[in-house]
Amino acid sequence: MARIVLGIGTAHSPLLTIDASLWSERGKDDLRREQIFLTDGRVLSYAQLNAEVGGQYADRATAETFVRQALAAQRSLDRLAREITQVNPDILVIVGDDQEELFSRSHMPAFAIYTGEQIVMHPKNEVSPNLPEWYRRANQGYLMDSAHQHPAAPRISVALVSKLIAAGVDVSIASKVEDPRAAGFGHAYGFVIDRLLGRRPVPIVPIMLNTYFPPNVPTPRRCYEVGGKLAAAIAELPADMRVCVLASGGLTHFATDEQFDRRMLEAMRAHDAQTLMAVPPEALRSGNSEILNWIMVAGAMESLDLTQVDYEPVFRTPAGTGIGLGFCIWSPR
Question: What pTM did the predictor assign?
């Protein structure tokens, strides 16, 4: 029987791939945002948000704070990378979201598993050569500077699809990257391969959620339930293998909601399924939606406990735009 020997939750923000000196450049993009989705369901422009909060985060949106938070975040990533290396899983299941990288809005499944032989990254820097410098550097950290390849786990993926279908999860599949310049894997997967695996050839099962694009975004309840079914499907695999399940993305962004993030992390620590399943869907739109990846992984962690939680609430602007950077480890009891 296969068994889950490790759970990981990690942010994959561009801030984690660029120098702290460029964080303020990333923040300049926030000033132009006309739609910032809040966890209370409202949508405000940057100007409206700043008028509401009165620039109260100005003392936290400083170069000194960015340097401190960048160092703390990299230490957390080092810890996650060491944990994966020490556990030495046979398979890494990555639950992430696809943001029009492999899929497009003309075909956007709610749940999909990749069953191909090779993960092939979408070379965004080649396709869009005039991106800002911070964006190009971020794409290097996402392995989206060229069509990098990494081994997948097709037999395991096919088995998991069959077991999930039998368990009532109507999961879609993708089986090949035809032309990576047109469509390939994105940041949720490349960041993990580069930063946490160090590009070591650990076979990956990519699970892709549509968190960003209504109307077929799964609810928090459904994501948690599917996480439990995923854990059961892994346990039914015939091979004796060690599996790591990883959530890539989050937490709240593009308006950082520290209270909301901490409530989610505490619910995961407490195995509080009711709190996680009861999150209003309207709280999880735009960047906030990547919390669904974490909720799905939390649903798979019934036999593991959250033993390490690092959290950095980043405020890039006086209005409080930024991201909640979360890094977690679930370990077997």
Answer: 0.97
